[in-house]
Design goal:
The chain has about 300 residues and is an alpha/beta fold. The protein folds into three domains: about 100 residues, NadA-like (Rossmann fold, 3-Layer(aba) Sandwich); about 100 residues, NadA-like (Rossmann fold, 3-Layer(aba) Sandwich); about 80 residues, Rossmann fold (3-Layer(aba) Sandwich), CATH 3.40.50.10800. The chain contains 14 helices and twelve strands. α4 crosses α14 and α11 runs parallel beside α12. The longest helix has 16 residues. It starts with a helix and ends with a helix. Bound molecules: 1,3-dihydroxyacetonephosphate and iron/sulfur cluster. The site of iron/sulfur cluster (SF4) has 12 residues, from loops.
Length: about 300
């Protein structure tokens, strides 16, 4: 019933629903498109015909959609769905770093707030961070805010001089190398894949390190039939749905991003009905942040 109402409202309001891979199953099922941050950013930039984009994810993702599609009305069903990692790089602190290292490029992970994107040279996601860092002309780089993704990049792009910010994701930080040891004992034939927001020792012990869309691709292509998933638990629903003949287990305990889970069918319906909560950003922030996001798309 509520799903039908959402679909009718969507038509009536000329809206598109985008959802991140960590959203609850009901939201993934009702969305027009489910993806990782990179895919969602590209989708947001590509819409021509809709009037409204409802973004089921956290605020920096909805802001990214607004920056790339400023003429659209971008809504988020729950205004306080934030990302603590993004908040770890504050505007003033980033400005200070820029002053301290004037010849460095600021590479901002898309998990950053819009004002920080506006003073960055380029953005990246976990899906394209390597390519972006390799391809930009600057040798000196300040990479923010996630120190683990920064470690992942620094370890693979030796020719660049990279300073890592000190932020972290509380969800991914909970995976430990002990979880990997236990998983290997329990499922010796399973492939263990983890997100680059996990700690370096976890990344080192895993079979592969991927963004959430990278995991979707890896699972499809791999000959393995069992996988241990080191990222937020929401992705497992999508993996199972798309690969019914393969088995998936969370690495250790199920790890949950509580902000991602703030969105549900009820507040999605309300969001469409009342056209709220609208993402509004100052024009100058949109203009500058857009340059960093467009550069990201151009460097990959
Ligand atoms: P992805 O870009 O891999 O989907 O990651 C986004 C995120 O927030 C990870 O915690
Ligand atoms: Fe932010 Fe971590 Fe949640 Fe991703 S999983 S949105 S990085 S808090």
């Amino acid at each position: 019933m509520i799903i039908e109402e959402i679909l009718n409202l969507k038509k009536e309001k000329e809206a598109i629903i985008l959802a991140h891979n960590y959203q609850i199953p009901e939201i993934q099922d009702v969305a027009d498109f489910v993806g990782d941050s990179l895919e969602l950013a590209k989708k947001a930039a590509s819409f021509k015909d809709c009037r409204i984009i409802v973004f089921c994810g956290v605020k920096f993702m909805a802001e990214t959609a607004k920056i790339l599609s400023p003429d659209k009305k971008v809504l988020i069903p729950q205004i306080d769905a934030g990302c603590p990692l993004a908040d770890m790089a504050g505007y003033e602190d980033v400005l200070k770093m820029k002053e301290k290292y004037p010849d460095a490029w600021i590479v901002s992970y898309v998990n950053s707030n819009a004002d920080v994107k506006s003073i960055s040279d380029v953005c990246c996601t976990s899906g394209n961070a390597l390519e972006v860092v390799k391809n930009i002309p600057s040798k000196k780089i300040i990479f923010l805010p996630d120190k683990n993704l920064c470690w992942y990049v620094k370890n693979r792009v030796k020719e660049k001089d990279i300073i890592c910010w000190n932020g972290y994701c509380y969800v991914h930080r909970k995976f430990t190398f002990k979880d990997i040891e236990k998983a290997r004992k329990m499922y010796p034939d399973a492939e263990i894949i983890v997100h680059p927001e996990c700690e370096p020792d976890v990344q080192k012990m895993a079979d592969g390190v991927y963004s959430t869309a990278g995991m979707v691709k890896r699972v499809k292509e791999s000959k393995s039939t069992r996988f241990i998933i080191g990222t937020e638990e929401g992705l497992i629903y999508r993996l199972k749905k798309e690969n019914p003949d393969k088995d998936f287990y969370p690495l250790g305990k199920k790890r949950i991003c509580y902000d991602m889970k703030k969105i549900n069918l009820e507040n999605l319906k309300k969001s469409l009905e009342e056209e709220k909560y609208e993402i509004l950003l100052p024009d100058n922030i949109i203009e500058k942040a857009k340059k960093s996001l467009e550069r990201m798309l151009n460097y990959t």
